[in-house]
Structures are given as C-alpha cells and as structure tokens.
Write a structure and sequence with these properties.
Chain A: Residues 20-423 form the Oligosaccharyl transferase STT3 N-terminal domain. The complex is a heterodimer of chains A (780) and B (115). Chain A has 780 residues and is mainly alpha-helical. In chain A, 59% of the residues lie in helices and 5% in strands. In chain A, the strands form five sheets. In chain A, strands 6-5-7-13-12 form a five-stranded mixed β-sheet, sandwiched between helices. Chain A has a two-stranded antiparallel ribbon with strand order 1-2. In chain A, helix 7 (115-141) runs antiparallel to helix 8 and helix 23 (413-447) runs antiparallel to helix 26. Chain B has one domain (25-113). Chain B is 83% helix and 0% strand. Chain B has four helices and no strands. In chain B, helix 2 runs antiparallel to helix 3 (56-80) and helix 3 (56-80) packs antiparallel against helix 4. Chain B starts with a helix and ends with a helix. The relative contact order of chain B is 0.11.
Chain lengths: 780, 115
C-alpha cells in the first residue's frame, strides 16, 4: 500500500526537481543569449551599426519625441528630396514601437536610459526571448529535453548573432522572436485544439506582420502544412480550429498595418492561404457528411458532387487564373519573385541584384553560420519521423523550405537558423536519451544491484535510428554488434538471463562503454560548437562598420572614425536646409547623424531617382553640376578608401552606379567605362572613366599624399593624377581621406568670352542667331 | 441514367434530411447562426458588385467579420459536439468562453478597420 504512494511521491518529486532545473537552465540560456551579443559593445562602443539601423533609430527618436499619432502621420521631407517619403505608410512599425514602448516603460519607472541605449540593447533582449520561444516550440514537438537543447543552440547560432548583435537595430531583431513564437502558438493550437491559443496565434502573427516583410513566409508555410496534413490523411478538427480562425483574423490584422494594407488580400503572396482556406472547408464538409451518412449513400453523394461540382470548379479556376495572369508579374512583388526565380532580379531589377545581402550564399557560409548543426539536421529529420505527428511534420516542412530559401539569398540564412536549431536539438536530445538509457539500464547490472527501473526498460518505442546500431538483449537472435569495442563484459552475460525474465519487451540498448564514449564525443561536439560561436560573435559579426579598426605592427589598435567625423562636420558647418548628395548607401546615416536632407537613401524605392544620382556620378563635371543643381544639391559626399585600403568605397560600387544609371538614361553606356571588360582607374582607363565625376571627386589631390597616387584598394597608380576641379570645390576631407565632401560652385555672375546671343525666356522675337549650344553656358 | 441519378439524388436528399434531423437542437442553433452569417456575407458581396468597392476597407471588414463569425461558430460547434472524441474532456463552458474571447478580438479589429 505504501509502496505505490512512495513511488508516486518519488516521481512527483522528480518532476518538480526537473521543472525547477529546467527553469534555471532557461534563465541561464537567456543570460547566455544576451551576453554573447555584447562583444561589439565591449570591443568598440555602444553605437548603432551599419546603415539600416540608423533609419530605425531616427524613426524611434521621432516616435519618442513626438508621440504615436505624429508617428503614424509622419511625412519625412528630409530624404528623397524633392519627393519626400511617407514614413507612416512605408515602414514596418513593429521594431520602433517595441523599442519606443520599452523606453517609455523604463522612463516611467524612473530608469533614465537614452533612446540610443534602448535601441542598441533591444536585439540581445529579444534574442533571449527567441531562445525561450524555441524551447516552447520544440517542447511541443518532441519534449522538454529537446526543447532545452534547441534553446541552447539558438542562443549561440552565429547566423542569428550576425543580425542581432548589440547595436544591430534592425527588423530581424524582433522578427525572429515573433516568427518562432507564432509557430509555437500554431503548433500548440494544433496539439490542443483550443480556440484560445488560436486567438493568441493570430495576435502573434499580427506582431510578426508589424515587424518584418518576411511575414509572407508564415502565411505561405502554414497553409502548405495544412495542405500536407490533409493530403497525408491527417485531417482532424483540431487542424480546422488551428487554421481557419487564423486565416480570417490574420488577414484582417495584416490589413491593419499600413505598409501592408490591401496587399493582404490582393497580392499573390497571400493567395495560397485563401486557397487552402477554401480547401479545408471543402474537406471539413466532406468529413461531416461522411460522418452523418451511411457508406452507401456517401458513395452516391460523392458521385453526384463530382459530376456537378467539377464543372463549377473549372469555371471558377479559369476566372481566377485570368485575373492573376492579367498582371505582368502575376501579382507577386519583385522581391518575392526573385525568391522564387533567383535569376529574376539580375535580369529586371538591378537594384535588388546589387545588394550584397541578396546574393546566394557560398557553401562555406553554411558551415560558418550554422556550423555543427549542418550535419545534425538530417539526424533530426529522421528523428522527427519516429513517430510522425502533426507538429513534427510541420518542423520538417519548415526546415526544407527554409533550406531552399537560404540557398537563394544569403540574408535568409537567418530564417534557416531556428529550424536548424530545432532539428539539431531534437537529434541531440534523442541521441542523449538513447545513450543515457543504455547506461542507466546497464549500470545497476554493473554495480550488482537488482533494482531495475522498469519504467526505463519498457520505453522501447523511440530510438534515433541514426545510431551505430541497436543491440537486443535476447538470446535467440545473435546479431552482429557494430559497437566500438567488441568485447562483452562477463557481468553482462551473467545478468542477462535474470534480466530477461524481468523484461518482456525487446530493448534497444547499446553497450556501456560505447554509450559513455559516445556521450563524451557528443559533449565534445557541443564544445566545438560553442567555441566556434563565441569566435564568430567576437571576431566576425561584431564590427559596427561605422567605426573601423586595424592593428598596427606593434600591437596597438588604430581606429578609423572617419564616417562620424564627416557627419559631424556636415552637421556643424552647413545650413540646416542644405541638401547633400551621395550614393544611396549613406542616406540613412546622413539623415540620422548629420541631420541633413539627402537625395536618395537605403530605402531604394524610387529607381529613377537613384538612376539620376548614378548618372550624375558617371557624367563629366559640367553635366553632373547641371543635374545636381536641378536637384538643389549643395554638397556632394564621396567615400574613398584608396589611402587606407577600405574596400567598400564608391569607386568599387561605381559599376552599379553606371548600371543603374544606364538602365534609365540610355546615354550612359557601360562599355564606355570598361577597358577589356574591366573597370580600371589606372593609365589604361577609358577617357570617359577618367573624366567622370566619381573619378575626379575621389582622386582630387590624391597624388599629394604619396607623390605617385597609389590606390591601395585597386593596387595601381591612378591614371589622371594632376587635374583641377572646375565646378566643385573641396570643403572637407576626413583624417584618413575616407570621406570627402565637395560643394557645388555657384555659377559665375558674368559670362565672358564669345558674344553669344542668350536664349531669352520671355521674348522669342529678339532671339536671332543661335549658336550650336542651345543651353546657357556660364563657364565660357 | 438520368432517372437513376435523379432517384439517387432523391434518396441522398432524404437520407441527409433524416440524418440531420437527429442532431441535437443546440447544434442546430449554431448551424442556423453560421448560415445567417454566410448569408449576410453574400448580401454584402452582391451589394459591392452593384455599388462598387469604395471604400474597400469597409467592404473587407464587413465581409471578413461575417466570415470570421461563421468560422468561429463552426469551431464552437466542433468543440461542443458530443460525438467528437477529441474534445470529450473539454467543458462546453470553456469552449463558449474561448468563442466569446475570439469574437471580441475579431470585432475589435473590425471596428478599427471599418474606417
């Protein structure tokens, strides 16, 4: 009588202990995820990185200063001059609203953190949340052990670290958390069939739509999974409850976000969800009818429906296809199309093709970004099939689609990272489960005690069959043992007959030494993974790219702070309303740090405007002056890395300026700038290249630095060394010559030289002789 | 052939009617509610076809609210139906509470989107 109670008490105590331990492990995982992302703050400073985060930072500043109504209605006139940009309708507000709320809460609690600090540390905080969400998701799929492993893996995976380092204040910082959390709620709804979780699922999806354009992945993956479940015969009413309310509520919530708006029902990216919505209703109806009719009548019903319904269906499909085919891109946006057809962007939209993040990844980048997980993933996939449940089929689908998309764009390796962590967590957890069970089973036999934990012995169901082999402890089948050490211990042979009587089912247990060795090897694998992740976080992904460092030969650190120097000069030495022209990479930083109006910025929504700037940079001085003057530009900013060897300067980006400019203005022809198919700036360069504005502005007075004009990036001496600028004057060059700022010279008051009759605007009668040039020429 | 199909249709119709008559009254009420919601949605679509789709957000929110309540009512019916083995330990009060919550969220969004 007392024994079962004791056993019960023992198991509840064990469960309680396990829960407390899990809680502390999760806490530690959160702390780990937060701290591993702090390398950039330690090595450099607490500064916002890159380009896009500066825009988000500026928007957050505006939000905290002016409140939410002004934020929704903000029309920004300091970028894309003279067009401006509607911020409220073109930005994904999730990140800025999250950081703004955090700042507001902290300030109302009298913790006076600045907006910049909150922005810098938003990403590490949300990566801790993301690892907790991974724990919840994997627990729903496989169990708590797999959940903890997956959470620990996600906290450190380099691919996620690269986009969520402290200072990388970009959409993905909160979007990955929203993605994993939405998937968790979907799986939870699928497993429990509760409408409450379905509501939460829709709300989490709303948060995801607010945060990132990648929400289309969710709204296509979940319908795909529902379709998979229906096709493989796993339809259940829980599936209907998980999917149908999600579609209706999710579409409405997505339409609420201004940047999505009516795209939620009109673009092809969402049509999959509607199609599967209709399909699941049809299937549900069929199951219902099947339930209330007798089998004979059901057959009759099926025949009737097929004959009548097929005709109707064809008509509807024809209408739908005609509607979709009438739009030239079949209703897909350019970015989504380039995901499905990787060659689309390079053929039609050079701007999308020019972004380095949109290139396909190289093979080594897989190992760099997900490391050990790359070969644990297949093991995880196999483990998901034993047994196959709705949740594990979802995770398999998720990894397969994310592997495909990560192969198209290197930026989407980020979406692969959580899937890989989940799969590897499952694989590792199953492997550990097998090994520890083997040890636990054999340890009593080894120690001579007769208590065998029958609970473990009867769990012969699930083993990851990727192990080296399984051994059956029965006497009849003499299987070959592919264990590492091929000898049996005497004690095991002796204990075998006595154990056999106690255990009725067949066991899948490995030899003791093999298990111990295998566990040691797995721990070693984990150690290698940790070492790699910490190295990647510290060395590869922590650079803020607005501050550069290099090591001098005597070991000291040399800091290149040229960008901020240039922006500070701009903000202190120019008028508030002056317009600055530069290539679109630097637009966000210029508006955020220098607080000046720019012509084009990283949003790249207007190809013609960018092409105008590109044409100006590729034209000779006079034509460029005309173009810039027509845009009211006062200052031109050029990034030049030739003196210090900074490879991402404007001369290296020049080919894109020519291509994008040439795409809109046909008088810019790319072959004019190429010699033997290459862009050259040395003495073999074409005259068009040597006369274009970008060359002149980059290399003006460059020969004064070392007497020969040796460009460290291109590794040659420049072609034209001594020249004067006629239409621009240099106003500032930073310490390492990395940023050079020029001012447009005003036109001269008096026009000297040949007596030409000027074309007058008001009277046409007085204009008589016309020279060859129609335009007024103020320089001769 | 046509006669046999029409006879089959008749037999089918009768068997459907008799099977449906056997469902409990509470479920029939929910079915009526679903039918009403779908009917309202259809009326809205016809009205839009006559009058035009401006303002589109109002049309969308109207139609989706009808479709949404229909879907949620079907979910309630699934959860309350005693023949459903998966939900036999879910108390119907809990199912109704979830239904009310989800409807609240849905209509809050609708009110916001109605414009």
């Amino acid at each position: 009588m007392a024994d079962p109670e004791n056993a019960m008490g023992a198991t509840t105590l064990r469960y309680a202990f396990g829960n407390v331990l899990s809680f502390f492990i999760l806490l530690l995982i959160g702390v780990l995820a937060f701290s591993i992302r702090l390398f950039s703050v330690i090595k450099y400073e607490s500064v916002i990185h890159e380009f896009d985060p500066y825009f988000n930072y500026r928007v957050t500043q505006f939000l905290t200063k002016n409140g939410i109504y002004d934020f929704w209605n903000w029309f920004d006139d300091r970028t894309w001059y003279p067009l401006g940009r509607v911020i409220g309708g073109t930005v994904y507000p999730g990140l800025t609203l999250t950081a703004g709320t955090l700042w507001w809460i902290l300030n109302s609690l009298n913790v006076p953190l600045s907006v910049e600090t909150v922005c810098v540390f938003t990403a590490p905080i949300f990566s801790a949340f993301a690892s907790w969400a991974t724990y919840l998701l994997t627990k729903e799929v496989k169990g708590a052990g797999a959940g903890l492993t997956a959470a620990a893996l996600l906290a450190m995976v380099p691919s996620y670290i690269s986009r969520s380092v402290a200072g990388s204040y970009d959409n993905e910082a909160v979007a990955i958390f929203a993605l994993i959390f939405t998937f968790y709620l979907y799986i939870k709804t699928l497993n429990t069939g509760s409408l409450f979780y379905a509501t939460l699922n829709a709300l989490a999806y709303f948060y995801m739509v607010c945060s990132w354009g990648g929400y289309t992945f969710i709204i296509n993956l979940i319908p795909m999974h529902v379709l998979l479940c229906i096709v493989t015969g796993r339809y259940s009413s829980r599936l209907y409850i998980a999917y149908a309310p999600f579609v209706v509520l999710g579409t409405l919530l997505a339409a609420l976000v201004p940047v999505v708006g009516f795209n939620a029902v009109m673009t092809s990216e969402h049509f999959a969800s509607f199609l599967v919505f209709i399909i699941i209703h049809v299937v549900a109806f069929v199951y219902y009818i099947k339930g209330i009719l007798s089998p004979k009548m059901f057959k009759v019903a099926v025949m009737l429906v097929i004959s009548v319904g097929l005709a109707v269906c064809c008509a509807v499909m024809a209408i739908l296809i005609a509607l979709v085919a009438s739009s030239p891109t079949k209703g897909w946006s350019g970015r989504s199309l380039s995901l499905l057809d990787p060659t689309y962007a390079s053929k039609y939209i050079p701007i999308i093709a020019s972004v380095s993040e949109h290139q396909p990844p190289t093979w080594p980048s897989y190992f760099m970004d997900i490391n050990v997980l790359a070969f644990l993933v297949p093991a995880g996939i196999i483990a998901c099939f034993l047994p196959l449940s709705d949740a594990s089929s979802f995770v398999v689908l998720y990894i397969v689609t994310s592997v495909y998309f990560s192969g198209v764009m290197v930026r989407l390796m980020l979406v692969l990272a959580p899937a890989a962590c989940i799969m590897s967590g499952i694989a590792l957890s199953e492997a550990f489960h097998v090994f520890t069970r083997s040890i636990k089973f054999q340890l009593p036999g080894l120690l001579g005690s007769s208590q065998v934990d029958s609970g473990d012995a009867s769990s012969s169901t699930v083993v990851a069959q990727n192990d080296a082999g399984k051994v059956e402890k029965t006497e009849d089948t003499a299987k070959e043992r592919p264990s590492k050490k091929n000898k049996k211990k005497e004690k095991e042979i002796v204990d075998k007959p006595s154990l056999k009587t106690k255990i009725e089912k067949r066991l899948l247990v490995l030899p003791l030494e093999a298990s111990i060795f295998a566990i040691l090897l797995l721990v070693l694998l984990g150690a290698f993974y940790v070492v790699h992740c910490v190295w990647a976080a510290a060395e590869a992904y922590s650079a803020p790219s607005i501050v550069l460092t290099s090591h001098s030969p005597d070991g000291g650190l040399h800091v290149f702070d040229d960008f901020r120097e240039a922006y500070a000069w701009l903000s202190h030495n120019t008028e508030v309303d002056d317009k600055v022209a530069s290539w679109w990479d630097y637009g966000y930083q210029t508006t955020a740090m220098a607080n000046r109006t720019v012509i084009v910025d990283n949003n790249t929504w207007n190809n013609t405007h960018i092409a105008t700037v590109g044409t100006a940079m590729s034209s000779p001085e006079k034509a460029a002056w005309e173009i810039f003057n027509s845009l009211d530009v006062k200052y031109v900013l050029v990034v030049f890395g030739g003196l210090v060897g900074y490879p991402s300067d404007d001369i290296n980006k020049f080919l894109w300026m020519v291509r994008i400019g040439g795409g809109v203005f046909p008088h810019i022809k790319e072959p004019d700038y190429l010699r033997d198919g290459h862009y050259r700036i040395d003495s073999q360069a074409t005259p068009t290249m040597l006369n274009c504005l970008m060359y002149k502005l980059s290399y003006y007075r460059f020969v004064e630095t070392d007497g020969k004009g040796f460009d460290r990036v291109r590794r040659t001496e420049i072609g034209k060394k001594h020249f004067k600028l006629t239409h621009f004057e240099e106003v500032f060059t930073t310490h390492h010559w990395m940023v050079r700022i020029y001012k447009l010279k005003p036109p001269k008051n008096r026009i000297r030289g040949k007596a030409k009759k000027l074309k007058s605007k008001t009277s046409t009668t007085t204009s008589t002789k016309r020279s060859g040039a129609n335009k007024r020429n103020p320089w001769h | 052939m046509a006669r046999s199909t029409s006879k089959d249709a008749q037999a089918l119709f009768n068997s459907l009617r008799s099977a449906y008559a056997a469902t409990p009254t509470s479920l029939k009420i929910i079915d009526l509610y679903v039918g009403f919601a779908v009917f309202t949605a259809l009326i809205q679509v016809v009205y839009m076809a006559i009058v035009g789709s401006f303002p589109f957000n109002s049309f969308l929110s109207g139609v989706l609210s009808c479709v949404g309540t229909a879907v949620l009512a079907v979910c309630l019916r699934i959860q309350v139906n005693k023949e459903n083995k998966e939900f036999k330990d879910l108390p119907p009060e809990r199912a109704f509470a979830d239904f009310v919550l989800c409807n609240l969220v849905l209509h809050l969004v609708i009110m916001n989107f109605l414009g």
